[in-house]
Every structure is written in C-alpha cells, then in structure tokens.
TrEMBL record:
Keyword Transferase: yes
Membrane-topology descriptor: Single-pass membrane protein
GO MF assignments: protein O-acetylglucosaminyltransferase activity
Keywords noted in UniProt: Glycoprotein, Glycosyltransferase, Membrane, Signal, Transferase, Transmembrane, Transmembrane helix
The Glycosyltransferase 61 catalytic domain, residue ranges: 378-457
One GO CC annotation: membrane
BP-aspect Gene Ontology terms: protein O-linked glycosylation via mannose
Location within or outside the cell: Membrane
Name of this chain's protein: Glycosyltransferase 61 catalytic domain-containing protein
Chief localisation class: membrane
Signal peptide residues on this chain, from the entry's feature table: 1-25
Length: 536
C-alpha cells in the first residue's frame, strides 16, 4: 500500500555530496512507484543521519543557527509567536512541540520529505516524544505479534535532524542567492496517519477520531483560563485535514454521516486524501531535480496505533479519543462543554432550531473525571428515544422488544413524556439528528445507532441505556457518553452496571445474536429514577 518507503536520509546526503554511485543516483531520482529501496546502503541509525559521518564531511553549524532562540518544549506559544512570519527562503525554522498525548501530537514547523516526517531541531531526539507514541507505519491493525511489529514506526516514518542537516538536504547556496527548497503548507492542518480500516465507520470517525481531534486541538491551545466554556476557547480554526492512508472513500461511511458531519462542522475545511499525499511525496524528489521538502506551519498528527500504545487507550478504554480527552482534563485546558461547538454546527446545519439547541444549556460543574451539567440545567420536555435494532442482525428477543415498547409507552403516557421508537435506517439523516438533539434518555441494544448520543443535549439527567447480552460489554458508547458529561448504564436483562463500577469488555456467545433478553421493568425503573434525580 502507498509508495515504497524512502531511503535512509544518509543515502540522500551522500548523493548531495557527490559521494555516491550511479546506482544510488538512479534510485533517488526515479519516479515514485518504480523506486527500489537500496539494501546495499540501508542503515539503521537511531536518528537517521550518523553525526560523525556528517562532521567527517566537514559540515558545521553556521553561527546564525547556533544563535537561534530555542522554544521551550511542551508549552503553548504566545499569540505573537503564532503570527510571526518566518523567512523560510533562508532559514530552517526549528520544529517545536505544542502538545502531545499518545496518538495526538501538535507541532509547529514539521517537515515532510519523501514520506518521512522530519523534526528539525538542534535539540536531541530525546527532547521530543518517542515516535512510537506519535506515529506508526500506517498499516491496518491486526492483533498478531507480526502485525504489531510491522506497525512500529522507524526513522523512515519520522526522524529528528539538525538545522545543518536540513540545510544539506534542502538548503540553497547563500553565495548564489539561492532560496531554500522548502515549501509551506500554511495554516492549521490535521494529518491523519491511520488507514481506512476504522475511518469509514460512523462511530469510529465521528465519535472517536473527530471527538479526539477536536478535544486535543482545543486543549493544545487553551489555558485553564480560556477553558471555562467553549465560547472562550482560543484554539485557532482548522484549515485542512489530510488522510495520508485513506482514499476518498476511505473516510466515508455508507450512510454518509462522516462527510455530513465534517462539512457541517467545518464548512471551509479542505480535505486531502491518500492520492494528494502521494502527490506531495512525489513532489519532494523528482528525476534529475533537487530534493525539496514541505513544511507544515502548525500540524496535529494523529495515529490510531500510537494511541493504542498509550495507557488510557491501550490498557483501559480501547478508545483513541480517551488519550486526547484525558490529557486535556489533566491539564485543565478542556472546557466542560468542549464538544458543544461541533454539536451546534452539525445540528444547525441539519435545520434544528435554536430553542432545541438551548435545551439544558448551562454546563459548568465538574465531578471527578466526569463532566456533569449544573443542577440548574433543565431538560424540558422529557424525550425518551428507543433506537430499535429489530431490523438488524444483533437484536432483542422479539417478545422482549414488544414488552419493552409496551412498558415504555405506558410509562411515558403516565408522566406526559414524549416517546419515540425508531429504526434509524428508516429515517433521513436530518430526522435522526433532530431526534437526537432533543433526546433526554436514549435506549438501544449495543450498536452504531447509539453513536447519535454525541448529538444529545448534556443535562444532569441525560442518559444512555445500552442493552447487552448478559455479561457482554464494550467501552464504545460508555466511554463516549461519560466523555461528554452524561450518564451511561449497561443493562444485562434485569440488572444494570454503571460508573464507578468497572466492567471489562466481554463478548460472550449470544453477544451478536438475535436472542438478547431484556426485562422491561428494570429499564423503566431506571428511567424513572434518573429523571426523578434519584440516580445522580
Ligand atoms: C557513524 O559512522 C562512523 C564512521 O563511519 C562509525 O565509526 C560509527 O560507528 C557510526 N555510528 C553509528 C551510530 O552508526
Ligand atoms: C430476565 O430477568 C427476568 C426477571 O428477573 C427473569 O424472569 C428472566 O428469566 C431473565 N431472562 C434471562 C434470559 O435471564
């Protein structure tokens, strides 16, 4: 998949210095697609270039580079730094780290040359996060030792070089008034390194990737003071997303929610896909030409495999967004209602009115790692939505479904609550979103239909009730519900399980089947307790 991997950086340097053979020259300047990676010269330097090899060739830092001010790592830059224009014609701006959690990393001045991302810095590699927590080879994931090893990034995926090494590669000759051969990718980019394996699914794209990306982007640029509410966020707009390993269909789901959400949330955002990324790779090295690099002004690099190497995702939640959200919570730079701007944009786009958007609005309190709405927030009217899966593969015992509908109907009639029993696939996108936008209690068997919970208003009684085959569990909707500040209950027939109790993923026989039981009175009792405030 994709282009053949680039040669080691040293090979390139050797070519530039003329210390090479015809064979190497042919390797470098062949058109992409026909390149054969030379094994004769492949090297395994930890940091790519062998420094002693370089100094041996008499290349030294220029005084100018030595004097370049160093940005402290891991800090948010001031506004003035962000808007300062850098003269990339003559300088190699150094890469700085803005923020990092496993799978989510924001850099300024990150370089790309022949498919490899380069950190250009006079600091050692150890000053930056280990690349295994930043990126991967971009291959689809399988749970085998071979595949896990194949996804481990190497210096071909990401490397650290010094400004003088960058000059060797892409520098113009100052004596001839030549400009550096680096071209800017201006503004703010999200570079998505994961393949289409999960991206083409509504839950994984909207409730995992987008949710993680938005939370990380917000907290990377916010301070505690600017994260009291999403309205005071100082995170800059996102200009483009580049799906490096997914083609135009690779990030689209079949029902079409992914494209709908992305366009609604970010109407001006430009999307590039794998083919565009390959164009950019090819453009860094052409037959007979001199190598050039792209430089990202500000880029958030996201990688699913790298997120899974983190503790929150890999050991606890299996949710890539967990690394992003927990990082922001720890720093105190994630507003309680951080998701609200995306939710509002999507719902406004779909035609939901302002009165509905204002339901329960007044989110300002925090409890543990759960965000809860203020006790004053109201949720009027009460809307109970049961998303039925009886038309799909995994579903309830037919009698239990019928009994549940009867019990919900009489409960809602008795209290004057609105009840919707829907099969999502029979509604238009707009109808589905309009319903989620006003739902107080969402009920359903574990499945993609529950992804709409990301469009529910967050109030103290907002609740997701997920029905599993008894003893079965998965974190998908539970984690997502809590990340947004709502309560989640897993139903096993006549019992429920909820935070702070820990339930581990489990897929018993029957999990995917058509005989999932549910004891209706357990569900209606739970709903009444939640709405009455007896279950906080
Ligand atoms: C770098 O190159 C020098 C000279 O060729 C060699 O002696 C040294 O072992 C190399 N270092 C690494 C880390 O490969
Ligand atoms: C579900 O719970 C009810 C009420 O306790 C019980 O009568 C029924 O047998 C249970 N069903 C299953 C499949 O366990």
């Amino acid at each position: 998949m994709g282009l053949p991997r680039t040669r080691s950086l040293r090979d390139v340097v050797l070519i530039l210095l003329g210390a090479t053979t015809m064979h190497l020259a042919t390797v470098l300047f062949q058109e992409p697609g026909s390149i054969i990676v030379s094994t004769q010269v492949s090297s395994h330097f930890m940091g790519g270039i062998n420094d002693s090899a370089i100094s041996h060739l008499n290349v030294e830092d220029s005084p100018l580079e030595k004097e370049e001010a160093q940005q402290p790592l891991g800090t948010v830059e001031s506004e003035s730094d962000i808007i300062t224009a850098v003269d990339i014609a003559h300088d190699f701006p150094e890469t700085t780290l803005v923020s990092h959690a496993p799978g989510w990393t924001v850099y300024r001045n990150l370089y790309m040359f022949y498919g490899t991302l380069y950190i250009v810095s006079s600091q050692p590699m150890s000053a930056f996060p280990d690349i295994m927590f930043v990126t991967s080879t971009g291959l689809p994931a399988e749970n085998t030792p071979e595949n896990i090893a194949l996804r481990m990034p190497t210096a071909r995926d990401m490397d650290v070089i010094t400004p003088s090494q960058a000059r060797l590669l892409w520098g113009g000759d100052p004596d001839k008034a030549e400009r550096n051969r680096i071209w800017p990718i201006e503004g703010n980019t999200v570079l998505i390194n994961e393949p289409s394996q999960f991206l083409d699914h509504y839950y994984h794209f909207c409730a995992e990737f987008l949710l993680g990306a938005w939370s990380f982007w917000q907290s990377a640029f916010n301070t505690a003071a600017s994260s009291t509410s999403w309205t005071s966020s100082r995170a800059p707009p996102i200009d483009r997303m580049i799906f490096a390993h997914a083609d135009a269909n690779g990030w689209r789901d079949r029902p079409g929610f992914n494209a709908y959400f992305l366009r609604a949330a970010f109407p001006s955002l430009a999307v590039e896909v794998q083919e565009d990324w390959q164009d950019r790779i090819a453009a860094t090295s052409s037959r007979g030409g001199r190598p050039r690099a792209w430089i990202f002004d500000t880029v958030m690099l996201t990688d699913r495999s790298a997120a899974f190497r983190g503790e929150a995702c890999g050991s606890r939640t299996q949710r890539i967004a967990a690394e992003a959200v927990e990082h922001g919570r720890k720093l105190g730079t994630l507003a309680a209602d951080w998701w609200e701007p995306i939710r509002r944009s999507v719902l406004r786009f779909s035609g939901v009115d302002e009165k509905t958007l204002a339901i329960g609005y007044h989110v300002d309190a925090q409890r543990g790692d759960l965000v809860v709405a203020a006790a004053t927030a109201t949720h009027d009217p009460i809307v109970v939505t049961y998303i039925s899966r009886q038309g799909s593969r995994r579903h309830l015992i037919d009698d239990d479904h019928a009994t549940l509908v009867e019990a919900l109907t009489s409960m809602c009639d008795a209290h004057g609550w609105e009840l919707n029993v829907v099969q999502a696939e029979r509604l238009s996108k707009e109808e589905q979103l309009a319903l989620a936008a006003r739902t107080t209690i969402m009920i359903g068997v574990h499945g993609n239909g529950l992804t709409h919970l990301i469009m529910m208003p967050v109030t103290p009684i907002s609740t997701v009730i997920e029905i599993f085959y008894p003893t079965g569990f998965a974190h998908d909707y539970e984690w997502t519900t809590h990340a947004l500040g709502m309560r989640h209950f897993a139903i096993w027939n006549d019992t429920y399980h909820s935070y702070p109790e820990t339930v581990w993923p489990n897929y018993p026989e029957g999990f995917q089947g058509t005989q999932i039981p549910v004891h209706a009175p357990a569900v209606t009792q739970l709903i009444q307790d939640r709405i009455a405030g007896r279950l906080q």
